């Protein structure tokens, strides 16, 4: 019998969220300089800004908060987490950090040097930021299919082997400290990478004697897609699949705020002892002693439980089905969204949604602002503002895709919330022909400008007949 899916958990505590009016929101977003990061959360009704650190912990994780061992050195919670990371990922060495970018900062302090090149599949913004900050650069080797939102490909996060081999063969080994594969690929729309692809990329890296790292923020969601889309994995458990893909690689950086099911945390796990030793020095300098790395003992305990819960099929199934439900509603309404749906988010295709708004007026940002004004929904621009300026020419970089990401926090919102979001977007879509002008930047930071950028609205000209 084919029964519908239902969440494998029930609610033990609720948190009220605050409705507001369109008039209020128009005022608030102007006061926030049209930057959704500047809004205080009480002015947001449904917060889909990010799935990072915004999920709900389980009762078992909260129980860990009570038994956390806050010893400076040798904390039992650290040992519990270390054992769990080893069991789930297979990596020998482990360093806790306060979040994912801290893991990048520590590890890249060891590995990345000036003029280096780091190939990968659409590097995440903090990953790219930490590489470019060291005067090195990234090369995006994602397959071309990732940039066409209309075609179906089960693993749009895959690395294009020709593009990768091109980079590896044209540069000397010492200029490429590692290849980094992001699973699932956030910047390409939460799209998964296949086991086959990881295996072949691993082979290519071995051929050129270059380490392969995984940006593992959503590794469990990636494993779900392998199980449900890749031949030969249907009957394997999520934990078996996870162990297999990590076995093809040399290490990982982790933002535990995603598939760690915690509100704060991260870690590095790897096999190379020499790199581990060097990274430990930076960890002590930037994060904290190697047995806490900027985390409380209780946080490490909750993360250990979270890693186990996140790698259970029933949880992943309900999570990914909920995201797909939002996507399916939008498709039914004719709204252009990236397909297949990503694991953690639905992406609106702003190039198709509001093509009349010029690209240099940040059309995806304009659409994100409209979602907030009409429905109190906070999404995020994944487009020109996020792409930053070229570090050498200081010109805007126009990415192929202009997206608005609606990231769904884990175990947090109901299907009714998803229905509401879809209805608001439909209302905006039905009046989209009126949107002709966007925004201009009045203040921006030199790197990762999207967090602090200030914008002003460009007036629509009065229509003259
Ligand atoms: C969130 C994220 C990071 C950075 O992690 P933080 O915990 O936000 O610092 C790195 N890579 C990917 C793919 C991410 O999604």
> What's the CATH class of the largest domain, please?
Alpha Beta
Helix and strand element order: HEHHEHEHEHEHEHHEEHHHEHHEEEHEE
State the fourth-level CATH superfamily of the largest domain: Type I PLP-dependent aspartate aminotransferase-like (Major domain)
Bound molecules: pyridoxal-5'-phosphate
* SSE class: alpha/beta
Alpha carbon gyration radius: 22 Å
Mass-distribution shape: globular
User: How many structural domains are formed by the residues?
Assistant: 2
User: Number of helical segments?
Assistant: 15
Span between termini: 63 Å
The major sheet is characterized as:
5 strands, mixed
Q: What proportion of the residues form beta strands (DSSP E)?
A: 5-15%
Q: Report the mean per-residue pLDDT as an integer.
A: 95
Largest sheet strand order: 2-8-7-6-5
- Which second-level CATH architecture of the largest domain applies? 3-Layer(aba) Sandwich
Share of helical residues:
25-40%
Uncertain runs are none
Number of strands: 14
CATH topology of the largest domain: Aspartate Aminotransferase, domain 2
Can you characterise this structure?
It is a single chain. With 465 residues, this protein is α/β, with parallel strands linked by helices. It folds into two domains: 22-51 and 314-457, Alpha-Beta Complex (Aspartate Aminotransferase, domain 1), CATH 3.90.1150; 59-310, Aspartate Aminotransferase, domain 2, CATH 3.40.640. Helix content is 38%, strand content 12%. The protein contains 15 helices and 14 strands. A five-stranded mixed beta sheet has the order 2-8-7-6-5, with helices on both faces. The chain has a three-stranded antiparallel beta sheet with strand order 9-12-11. A two-stranded parallel ribbon has the order 1-10. Strand 5 (179-182), helix 7 (195-207) and strand 6 form a beta-alpha-beta unit. Helix 3 (76-89) runs parallel beside helix 11 (297-310) and helix 6 packs parallel to helix 7 (195-207). The longest helix is centred in the last third of the chain and has 20 residues, at 313-332. The structure holds pyridoxal-5'-phosphate.
């Amino acid at each position: 019998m084919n029964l519908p899916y239902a969440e494998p958990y029930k609610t033990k505590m609720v948190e009220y969220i605050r409705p507001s009016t369109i008039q209020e929101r128009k005022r608030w977003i102007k006061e926030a300089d049209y930057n959704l990061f500047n809004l205080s959360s009480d002015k947001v009704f449904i917060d889909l800004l990010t799935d990072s650190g915004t999920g709900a912990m389980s009762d078992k994780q909260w129980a860990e908060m009570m038994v956390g061992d806050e010893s400076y050195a040798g904390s039992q919670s650290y040992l519990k987490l270390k054992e769990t990371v080893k069991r789930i990922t297979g990596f020998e060495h482990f360093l806790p950090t306060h979040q994912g970018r801290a893991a990048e900062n520590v590890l890249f302090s060891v590995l990345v040097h000036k003029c280096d090149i780091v190939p990968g599949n659409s590097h995440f913004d903090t990953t790219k930021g930490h590489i470019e900050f060291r005067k090195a650069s990234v090369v995006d080797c994602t397959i071309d299919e990732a940039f066409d939102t209309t075609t179906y490909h089960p693993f749009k996060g895959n690395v294009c082997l020709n593009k990768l081999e091109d980079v590896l063969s044209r540069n000397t080994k010492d200029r490429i400290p590692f290849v980094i594969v992001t699973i699932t690929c956030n910047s390409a729309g939460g799209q998964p990478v296949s086991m086959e692809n990881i295996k072949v990329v691993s082979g290519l890296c071995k051929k050129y004697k270059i380490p392969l790292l995984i940006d593992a923020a959503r590794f469990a969601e990636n494993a779900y897609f392998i199980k449900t889309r890749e031949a030969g994995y249907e009957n394997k458990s999520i934990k078996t699949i996870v162990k297999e893909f990590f076995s093809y690689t040399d290490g990982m950086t982790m933002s535990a705020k995603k598939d760690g099911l915690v509100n704060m945390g991260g870690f590095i796990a790897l096999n190379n002892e020499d790199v581990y030793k060097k990274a430990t020095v930076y960890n002590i300098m930037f994060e904290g002693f190697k047995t806490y790395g900027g985390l409380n003992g209780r946080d490490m305990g909750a993360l250990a439980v979270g890693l186990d819960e996140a790698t259970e099929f029933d949880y992943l199934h309900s999570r990914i089905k909920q995201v797909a439900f939002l996507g399916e509603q939008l498709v039914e309404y004719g709204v252009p969204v990236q397909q297949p749906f990503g694991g953690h988010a639905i992406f609106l295709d702003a190039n198709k949604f509001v093509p009349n708004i010029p690209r240099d007026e940040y059309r995806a940002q304009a659409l994100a602002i409209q979602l907030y004004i009409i429905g109190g929904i906070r999404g995020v621009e994944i487009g020109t503002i996020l792409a930053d300026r070229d570090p050498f020419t200081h010109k805007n970089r126009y990415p192929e895709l202009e997206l608005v990401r609606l990231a769904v926090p884990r175990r947090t919102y109901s299907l009714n919330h998803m229905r509401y979001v879809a209805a608001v977007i439909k209302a905006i879509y039905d009046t989209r022909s009126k949107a002709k002008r966007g925004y201009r930047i009045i203040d921006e930071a030199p790197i990762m400008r999207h967090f602090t950028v200030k914008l002003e609205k460009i007036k629509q000209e009065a229509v003259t007949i």
